[in-house]
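Minutes, project check-in

Agenda point 3 was the complex the collaborators sent over. CS summarized: two entities, 228 residues total, and the question is how they sit relative to each other. Sequences were read into the notes so everyone works from the same version.
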Amino acid sequence: MRVLVQEEAFDFGREAQAFASGHSNMGAIVTFTGVVRDSDKGGMERMVIEHYPGMTQKALETIAKDAVSRWDLGDVLVIHRHGELRPGEMIMMVATAARHRVNAFEAAEFLMDYLKSRAPFWKKEYGADGAEWVAAKDEDEDALSRW
Amino acid sequence: MDVLYFAWVRERIGIPKETLTTEAKTVKDLVEELKLREERYAVAFSDLSALRVAVDQELTDFDAALDGVREVAFFPPMTGG
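CS then shared the predicted structure for the full assembly.
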């Protein structure tokens, strides 16, 4: 299990390759990558992600451990960035390795649902007409109830 | 006790962190105490349903006890991922 909280960009291809290479008994590798997209109204120039340094690493590790305890997984990788990002940049990735794909897919979805609503990150979008905090969506909170 | 504020809570209160001494028994008591201090706190804490709280870096609720606690953080619902 590997959990990284970092400001710098990560190399998705290299991370995915390294993660997938280390597991000869795992039949399924699932990866998910979150990318900064333009705001719903358009015109976003940059996004700044604030986080709670003392808590973030622990919160992500707790979520990753939870996934490992619920599904038969060989390994989990979580990388989440903070700081300033521009549209098109990768914010975060998760990867799961399992003997069978159902576990890998479900665990990846679980990780994403929990990262959205239970990891202490807050996004602020900056555009030509000012800045706005991204509001949490009810459906993101509701998504947790399925686990 | 250290009290931390994040995102728009930090912006409304105007500081990221402060250290204070309190007799508050629960998070809710602490919030009431802060609201009485200055208008900016009253504004930031006007709707608790829009806020989340962590005690010693663990998510909890506003009824959580503060006995022996070293750090309390207030913030809006998280938007990770």
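Noted in discussion: The radius of gyration of chain A is 16 Å.
Follow-up: revisit at the next meeting once the mutant set is ready.
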